């Protein structure tokens, strides 16, 4: 099982990694590791994530106010967003395919 990231989700991951790394050395790496761990857990157990808008599921990221938003695909999950819990809910809905 694998977790694939959309272009927008990858951009969010990289931007937040840089942000946390600028706050404190090593924090960005820790953030990225926690996001990747959450995505891999989602891939292994896709139905364990809480049902969310647009037919997606969400899995919280340990120690950070973020959630991995994904849908199940053959062989794993497709991550649509690394959603900041402080942003308006479902800001990422427009990213989902019709």
From TrEMBL:
It comes from the Bacteria. It comes from Roseateles oligotrophus. Keywords: Toxin-antitoxin system. InterPro entries: RelE/ParE_toxin (IPR007712), RelE/ParE_toxin_dom_sf (IPR035093). This is Plasmid stabilization system protein ParE. Gene3D superfamilies: RelE-like.
């Amino acid at each position: 099982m694998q977790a694939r990231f959309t272009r927008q989700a990858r951009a969010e991951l990289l931007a937040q990694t840089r942000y946390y790394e600028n706050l404190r050395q090593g924090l960005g790496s820790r953030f990225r590791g926690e996001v990747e761990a959450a995505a891999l857990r989602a891939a292994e157990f896709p139905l364990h994530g809480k049902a969310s808008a647009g037919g997606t599921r969400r899995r919280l990221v340990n120690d950070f106010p973020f959630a991995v938003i994904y849908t199940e695909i053959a062989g794993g999950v497709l991550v649509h967003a690394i959603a900041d819990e402080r942003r308006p809910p479902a800001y990422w809905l427009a990213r989902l395919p019709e």
